[in-house]
Amino acid sequence: MAQSELFKTTQLGPYTLKNRIVLPPLTRSRSSQPGNIANDLMATYYRQRSGAGFMVTEGTQIEPRGQGYAWTPGIHSPEQIQGWRKVTDAVHAEGGVIFAQLWHVGRVSHTSLQPGGEAPIAPSAIRADNVKVFIETGPGTGTLTDPSTPRALSTAEVKELVALYAQAARNALDAGFDGVELHCANGYLVNQFISAHTNQRDDEYGGSLQNRLRFLREITLAVAGVVGKERVGVRFAPLFATTDEDRVYLGLVEDDPHQTYIEAVKILEEVGIAYLSLAEADWENAPEPA
Description:
single chain; alpha/beta; TIM Barrel; 6-stranded parallel beta sheet; two-stranded antiparallel ribbon; 7 helices; 14 strands; 19% strand; globular
């Protein structure tokens, strides 16, 4: 009996994957507190799934302001890096390959999750609607609530964020990860720069489509410069539908999604990344594939 293609080896950049099964990023909110630190439970979770040929971690915030949900892990402190080493060591002991998903939620957050109780940051000061964030209300307890109104980033702050993505990639290497995936989907920070609905800036990062894609280009180049382009993946979730109502996801509307993502993919091709991950829409009344 012929072996299924699913169980055959395949190549991803420099890595020979033992099969074509992938564990996608799945938020679990199990990090240790205080500090949002990866722990033994998380190491066990990923080790148990290391039979997959390729694994991507849950979304991992690149800096303290990047958090939008209680207890999600970060990769910006020495303690977090050390915690993630438990995970990568466990996966590598089983012969697995694992990338860290670098995540910044932007405006999809709440003041209680932000350093000093400050407003979340975003391309423009437009609050996310039709979405809830999860905040801590006590030890081990939490609740869903509306996001807070964000403040707009200055041009200098946007450039600082590019550097923070690069530093997070360095931290991922220090933590033993085999590469990184940039979370550019689902209405979070990078997606907020791409969409004209959430990006109403009048500087070099707003206005035209190419300007709105500038942040994507810069962080992809910066991260590839750290880990190597063959160790970088990008996640998109294009919203293709017939009505504005169906294009709303995490309070974000995509204008002309076909042209937007054609141009976005051109950027990724120019950089020469390892892979592009496309997430299927999974909300109510989501468009069905033809």
